[in-house]
């Protein structure tokens, strides 16, 4: 078991109610979990807890059998890679330099990347198939290209788990599908993936685990085909949604009318 979460809860300071609570699930190597829910329901808060960026009010998180609280943030960065929804670089680093920065958890304080670190970064650039971007300025990349560079930077951390906060946000349809394909390929390489999304069809395409975080801290987890039902999705989004089965593709899609 790569990730175990038990009775997790988080409450922001000076806020009466817990933003998330009663979070229980586990993931194995290579599994994908898509987290869905309306804005403000706690999806990003949950990711931040799992990534060890904020400390839960209560509960337990174990990565590869170790409590995340016991290993510290530096060591946690070797186990968990986190791709935020927004990232704006201040300096015009090349993509190769930007990706190499992902080796920071392995460097001494004030240390500089060594030959091995640069080789690992080049391997990640190659794995993401962005060699043609290696010497371009990160600040000049498109949204889809930045997403690829961010994931390459995470890969050089050599994590067991990759977390992505709305990775298809602000991408055109083609880049959304390419990103989903890339996520699927990473899971097949053994990475455990956790991602948030507003699009139920994306979770259905990835065909693995899904979780719903709803107002009132309701949390539901299981196989996507069981969790992403017409009733559950209609409730969380406040819409009359329908699940339609496409026989030719042996898949379900979510639709509504306006």
Topology:
Layout: E1 3-10, E2 20-27, E3 32-36, H1 43-50, E4 58-63, E5 66-67, H2 68-79, E6 80-83, H3 95-100, H4 115-127, H5 143-155, E7 161-165, H6 173-188, E8 192-196, H7 200-206, E9 209-214, E10 218-223, H8 224-227, H9 230-237, E11 242-246, E12 251-255
Parallel strand pairs: 3-8, 3-9, 6-7, 7-8
Antiparallel strand pairs: 1-2, 1-4, 4-5, 9-10, 11-12
Structural features, described:
The mean pLDDT is 90. Strand 7 (161-165), helix 6 and strand 8 (192-196) form a beta-alpha-beta unit. The protein has 258 residues and is an alpha/beta fold. It has helices at 43-50, 68-79, 95-100, 115-127, 143-155, 173-188, 200-206, 224-227, 230-237; strands spanning 3-10, 20-27, 32-36, 58-63, 66-67, 80-83, 161-165, 192-196, 209-214, 218-223, 242-246, 251-255. The chain is built from 9 helices and 12 strands. Helix 4 (115-127) crosses helix 5.
Main beta sheet: strand number and arrangement?
Answer: 6 strands, mixed
What distance separates the N and C termini? 43 Å
Low-pLDDT ranges? none
N-to-C SSE string, H for helix and E for strand: EEEHEEHEHHHEHEHEEHHEE
Please state how the strands of the largest beta sheet are arranged side by side: 6-7-8-3-9-10
Judged by helices, strands and strand pairing, the structural class is: alpha/beta
The percentage of residues in β strands lies in 25-35%
**Strand tally:** 12
Radius of gyration based on Cα positions: 19 Å
Alpha plus pi helix count:
9
Mean pLDDT: 90
- What is the 3D form? globular
Provide the helix percentage: 25-40%
Quick summary:
34% of the residues lie in helices and 25% in strands.
């Amino acid at each position: 078991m790569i990730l175990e979460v038990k009775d997790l809860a988080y409450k922001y300071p000076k806020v009466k109610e817990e933003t998330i609570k009663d979070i229980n699930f586990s993931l194995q190597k290579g599994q994908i979990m898509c987290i869905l829910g309306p804005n403000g329901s706690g999806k990003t808060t949950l990711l931040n807890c799992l990534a060890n960026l904020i400390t839960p009010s209560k509960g337990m998180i174990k990565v590869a059998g170790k409590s995340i609280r016991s290993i510290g943030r530096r060591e946690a960065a070797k186990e968990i890679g986190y791709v935020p929804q927004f990232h704006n670089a201040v300096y015009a680093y090349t993509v190769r330099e930007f990706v190499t920065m992902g080796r920071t958890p392995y460097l001494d304080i004030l240390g500089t990347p060594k030959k091995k670190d640069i080789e690992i970064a080049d391997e990640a650039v190659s794995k993401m198939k962005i060699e043609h971007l290696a010497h371009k300025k990160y600040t000049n990349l498109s949204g889809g290209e930045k997403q690829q560079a961010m994931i390459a930077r995470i890969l050089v951390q050599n994590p067991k788990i990759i977390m992505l906060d709305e990775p298809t946000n602000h991408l055109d349809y083609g880049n959304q599908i390419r990103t989903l394909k890339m996520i699927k390929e990473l899971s097949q390489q053994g990475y455990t993936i956790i991602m948030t999304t507003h699009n139920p069809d994306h979770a259905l395409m990835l065909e693995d685990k899904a979780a719903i975080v709803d107002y009132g801290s309701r949390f539901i987890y299981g196989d996507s085909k069981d969790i992403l039902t017409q009733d559950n999705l209609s409730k969380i989004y406040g819409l009359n949604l329908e699940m339609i089965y496409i026989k030719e593709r042996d898949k379900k899609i979510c639709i509504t009318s306006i």
